[in-house]
Design brief:
InterPro entries: AB_hydrolase_fold (IPR029058), Lipase (IPR013818), Lipase_hep (IPR002333), Lipase_LIPH (IPR016272), Lipase_N (IPR033906), PLAT/LH2_dom (IPR001024), PLAT/LH2_dom_sf (IPR036392), TAG_lipase (IPR000734). Its EC number is 3.1.1.3, 3.1.1.32, 3.1.1.5. The protein is of the alpha/beta class and 494 residues long. Helices cover 27% and strands 27% of the residues. The chain folds into two domains: 294 residues, Alpha/Beta hydrolase fold, catalytic domain (Rossmann fold); 120 residues, Lipoxygenase-1 (Sandwich). The strands form two sheets. Strands 2-1-4-3-5-6-7-8-11-9-10 form an eleven-stranded mixed sheet, sandwiched between helices. Strands 12, 13, 14, 15, 16, 17, 18, 19 and 20 form a nine-stranded antiparallel sheet that branches. Bound molecules: 2-acetamido-2-deoxy-beta-D-glucopyranose (4 copies).
Length: 494
Amino acid sequence: MSVFKLLCCLLLTYQLSEGIKTKGSRAVVTEQGRVPLVNQPYVSSTAFRLFLEGEDTCTLDPLQLHTLPSCGFNGSNPLIIITHGWSVDGKRESWILSLATALKKTLIDVNVVVTDWLSLAHQHYPTAVQNTRTVGKDIARLLQSLKEQYQYPVRKVHLIGYSLGAHISGFAGSFLQGPEKIGRITGLDPAGPLFEGMSPTDRLSPDDAEFVDAIHTFTHERMGLSVGIKQAVAHYDFYPNGGDFQPGCNLHNIYEHITEYGLFGFEQTVKCAHERSVHLFIDSLLNKDKQSMAYRCGDSKAFDKGLCLDCRRNRCNTLGYYIKKVPMSRSKMLFLKTRPRMPYKLHHYQFRIQFINQMEQIEPFLTISLNGTKEESGNHGISFTENISGNKTYTFLITQDRDLGDLMMLKLRWEDPALWKNVWNKVQTIIPWGSRRRKPRLTVGKISVKTGETQARTYFCAMMNDGQEVEVSQDKVFVRCDEDKPRQRRRKHN
Ligand SMILES: *[C@@H]1O[C@H](CO)[C@@H](O)[C@H](O)[C@H]1NC(C)=O
Ligand SMILES: *[C@@H]1O[C@H](CO)[C@@H](O)[C@H](O)[C@H]1NC(C)=O
Ligand SMILES: *[C@@H]1O[C@H](CO)[C@@H](O)[C@H](O)[C@H]1NC(C)=O
Ligand SMILES: *[C@@H]1O[C@H](CO)[C@@H](O)[C@H](O)[C@H]1NC(C)=O
């Protein structure tokens, strides 16, 4: 039932989004949203709990900050505040404990506070959205008190917000008075409905902290709405697997899920992809030796073609807690592929192949495998979206669970697609070629593979000296070559 409510709410919300005046100009916001002075009465609608160990927490009273030392707050350590999102059932979600535990266990010298705004979040979605400013104000108020009473600098604060919590963290940053900004805000799949397309003052934006990063994991659009926000809202915006669909979440089976499990299936699918942002962040803490690298790209289509594995001038960055905090004037959209399970890291390889003197139009299906000093890749099927003709270079993205090491050998096989074979056989039947029967040929020019994680590019040359011709259903082996010859290649795409 609650899931049905979720669906209805989202739909309703979207239709209302034009009409509801949750917006308000910046001037209005600063007038009404000003954090009251200390001597004015202030009632916090939000509970803040200092996370200690296991399930142990200690409630902080933003008005009575003498609770801080007795709770075990250590003023010399950074402060991380976790803020949850909209609540369908009014219950605390399990990821909060996982994230708080991962932060405390791996960072140790850190204060972790969990924001509890469940009563305001367990409402119709548009109401919960309106409450986000109130909660943002409460957080700003807490930080203000910490600064005034404990000289605790706000730049040592890192807000981590999930879904609506991401925008709450943004509002906290904008409600804060004084020149000093919050150190960092991380938005984990910031909510989309009623925030998409809004002005920077009405959502999470790069202005809200010294450094803002966001991970977008469920921006799949259905009936004109997406649960997570699609637009860039941070200095670095990460779009794992394109940001709309996450492997292991079976979004493509959403309708089958509903038929099989009822709306529970829908909830699981939504929760899986939306919450993946949280688990990617947790992964960055728990698997420090397996940090996922993401690359700047115009869109996921270009990324899938392997065009974007470049790290020059901060074009790549690490996803999660250990991100390189380079201040940016503009948002950067970064892409990466992940595994369906933790550890999520994948290694990215950009494969470039040049075909020369291709006379007839062909639709090849290639299988390639790479052999490196550490691992073998196994076979990767590559299907071309366009026909091959003339002298042209094609690029693809190949991902691997494990680091292959230095690439030594590449095997290429031109598969014989059944469909094409049938056509070929038919042609042969109709037109008897006789002894002058011509087999289709594919001539390969330069081949290279770039490893995103190391930025190394490896060139390959034919092993046999029978040219670089590839025939249908035959393995062709190429070995690493460091000759200067291949360097004359065009260097258009990095
Ligand atoms: C606070 O944390 C620091 C480490 O960052 C530690 O050296 C110090 O003893 C802690 N203070 C208290 C009161 O626990
Ligand atoms: C590719 O070439 C074949 C003929 O070999 C043609 O039937 C097909 O329409 C072409 N496809 C594209 C996408 O151009
Ligand atoms: C891959 O390379 C290793 C040595 O690096 C070698 O032992 C192995 O046989 C190679 N595999 C293939 C399929 O050629
Ligand atoms: C392809 O390039 C070769 C030289 O590398 C040239 O001789 C040939 O005419 C070109 N073919 C086409 C179809 O452009």
